[in-house]
Design brief:
6 helices; 29% helix; alpha+beta; globular; 17 strands; 5-stranded mixed β-sheet
């Protein structure tokens, strides 16, 4: 009789080796970053490496060397035989002190097809400053709003303040000034790249509390993530210009941002 000193695992009736990493993946305690790679380069590489190092310290009590991360990504690209890809880097610790760094290589993402219609939902991600792997809540709401004909979910705190999108950061235009919500949210890499490019161009941006019942006062809205910047023509029943010049300017800034060799 099996004493279960080693866990026994079946998936769809097929037995699998109970690799500690597999069990860690099932447990959902870890963090990650996602990037678009073109010709072996990525925008905002320093932000990705800082994100991984900082989160690894917080979750597992030790840092993560950026050189190791780059090696893992380069090795995965070489093994896959590609230079263009969507890449994800996951960090887990199946056992205390036994950290793993996993690189996943996928097909390159195509840019968003156009303006993103957004519906608000009452949800705040736990530990929102981390890009952690516990994404059930945001995926649930994203599926719900897509079934209702929208493209993205806007996560709203219990007090009515806007935080972030389910898979994006959201920005508002007050004239030519970009306003990022100050509620707890993930500092997305594209958002950070945009902030740096705005600073370089001498253009204004700020963080402030944005209430859902006040969004109509803004001149335009956009969302951004690793596939780029998209205008938002609709939040619930509030309409915004679908082709505002300040949003086009942000797209140009992002598209002109430098690429870093991995």
């Amino acid at each position: 009789m099996n004493d279960l000193s080693t866990p026994y695992v079946q998936v769809d009736g097929r037995a699998l080796d109970a690799d500690p990493l597999f069990l860690a993946l099932m447990g959902g305690y870890g963090h990650m970053t996602a990037m678009q790679i073109r010709d072996g380069r990525v925008r905002g590489l320093d932000f990705h490496l800082t994100r991984l190092d900082t989160a690894t310290k917080e979750l597992f009590g030790e840092g993560l060397d950026g050189g190791l991360v780059r090696d893992r990504i380069r090795s995965a690209l070489d093994e896959a035989g590609v230079r263009d890809a969507s890449a994800r880097v996951y960090v887990y610790a199946p056992e205390p002190g036994d950290r793993t760094v996993t690189a996943v290589i996928l097909r390159p993402a195509v840019p968003e097809p156009g303006p993103q219609r957004v519906r608000s939902v009452p949800y705040a991600r736990p530990s929102a400053h981390l890009k952690h792997v516990g994404v059930f809540g945001q995926v649930y709401h994203l599926r719900q709003v897509k079934a209702a004909g929208f493209d993205e979910a806007l996560l709203v705190e219990p007090d009515g303040t806007v935080a972030e999108g389910a898979v994006t950061n959201v920005g508002f235009l007050d004239g030519d000034t970009v306003v990022w919500p100050s509620a707890p949210a993930l500092d997305g890499i594209t958002m950070l790249v945009l902030q740096r490019e705005l600073d370089r161009a001498g253009l204004p941006w700020r963080r402030q509390a944005v209430r859902l019942d006040e969004v109509a006062r803004f001149d335009a809205v956009f969302v951004c993530n690793s596939v780029g910047v998209s205008p938002v023509p609709l939040i619930d029943d509030v309409r915004f210009p679908p082709d505002a010049e300040p949003v086009r300017m942000l797209k140009r800034l992002y598209e002109a941002a430098p690429w870093d060799v991995i």
